[in-house]
Amino acid sequence: MADQAGDPLFQSQDPIFDRKELLHVGHVPDEDRIVGRDDEIESVAAEIGAITRGDPPNNVMIYGKTGTGKSLISRHVATRARNAAQGNGIDCGVLYVDCSEANTETRTTRQLALSLKDGTDYRENIPVRGVGTMEYYQHIWAILEDCFDAVVVILDEIDKLDNSNILMQLSRAREARKTDAYIGVIGISNKVKYRETLDERIDSSFGHRELFFHPYDASQLREIMRNREDAFQPDVLADGTIELCAALAAKKHGDARKAIEILKEAGELARRTGSEIVSEDHIKQAQEVAEINRIEELTSGATVHAKLALYALASHIITGERETYKTREIYERYVGICDLVATDPITENGLYRQLKEQAFLGVIESEKTGGGRSQGSYLLHRLVTDPKHIVKAVRRDASLEELPTYDRLAETGPATGGHDTDLSSFD
Ligand SMILES: Nc1ncnc2c1ncn2[C@@H]1O[C@H](COP(=O)(O)OP(=O)(O)OP(=O)(O)O)[C@@H](O)[C@H]1O
Ligand SMILES: [Mg+2]
């Protein structure tokens, strides 16, 4: 590349990355880079595969935590099914809707109608505004009738939809003589309880199978990353870096997206520090940054009081000997910390509600302990992550950067402005 013409300022080759786009968040890997999900691919194919032979497919719901390949595998299998069907002379379409954006029935049906129309010779105008759900359904049935034998509809993040009537409409369309085309629905959610929220009528007419995608283990994550090694220049990844990255990500969450992000961040770190290789140290640092970002993302919508509550719990854990603390203990320390940042504390009950919200977000875990009510049961809270990360994430809030750093907490013990609690009195 050195002899390339042009401004020399921009001529030097990236010393670390060769094809960085392979590590971008939105990047959809080619078929031959999808690894470790063969069984899941086969299971999804078994449910919708009948469509390729001109037979009715099953509907299927895919559940699993974030970054377990649900969206990727669904699109992959649906596309392959469409190609196979077309090879058999069947006019088959694939529709994808992200219901976290199209979160009402009207928005979803509008998007379905518009993408169905795309590329067909359907002449009717589909208005973007001013019409209701029923009109969009009518377009959907008409386009299916005119142009398709079958269609696979992927409803991603389906739990974000404000009602699930669309499931009934799609699954009963043939029966209700709206269209002769076969419709196979793949619903995706990371809430396993989604089915319980479905109306009984909808649940029975949707009559779906359920598949569960489990978090990736270290060897699967290793393969996923190995398959993208060419994002880096040759010999830049030191021995053992991918293994370490996979091990760390598997231990935390088994999330492929996060694993890839850590690898990318490690490369950025190496480049920023002028290193010629990406080392295990870069991976460890990148993992810390990723974890702090994750916590910051989770808490970004939280109030200052929730952040202070988290900080109070973290500082207990750093300076104390236990991993779990009672609401009361967290509250007492929180009051002291409010003093430090000149903020008026909320009530203990208010703080309790903030803690519950954080438990919901997955930043802390709360567990009821003790006997029945009369014996005074109480909640014990623990952090799901390293308290160091909480301290860092909370201090990123400009109004809270005066709070003691992790190192100071670890060195000097409780720093709560004189409101420190005698822990023994709560045991
Ligand atoms: N088996 C795999 N092989 C290669 N890359 C993968 C695999 N699984 C996931 N990935 C990568 O991880 C990213 C996240 O996967 P995906 O979006 O499918 O997860 P998800 O389960 O839908 O997560 P969410 O619940 O957050 O939407 C993908 O963009 C892809 O780059
Ligand atoms: Mg997804």
Automatic annotation (TrEMBL):
One Gene Ontology biological process: DNA replication
Domain of life: Archaea
Keyword set includes Cytoplasm: no
CDD domains for this protein: AAA, Cdc6_C
Domain AAA+ ATPase span(s) in chain numbering: 56-217
Domain Cdc6 C-terminal: 310-394
NCBIfam families cross-referenced by the UniProt entry: orc1/cdc6 family replication initiation protein
Record-stated family: Belongs to the CDC6/cdc18 family.
Region (Disordered): 405-427
Function statement: Involved in regulation of DNA replication.
Keyword set includes DNA-binding: no
Binding site for ATP: 68-72, 216, 228
Species, as recorded: Haloterrigena salifodinae
Gene Ontology molecular function: ATP binding
Protein name as it appears in the record: ORC1-type DNA replication protein
UniProt-listed InterPro entries: AAA+_ATPase, AAA_16, Cdc6_C, Cdc6_lid, ORC1/CDC6, Orc1/Cdc6_arc, P-loop_NTPase, WH-like_DNA-bd_sf
Keywords of this entry: ATP-binding, DNA replication, Nucleotide-binding
Transmembrane segments: none
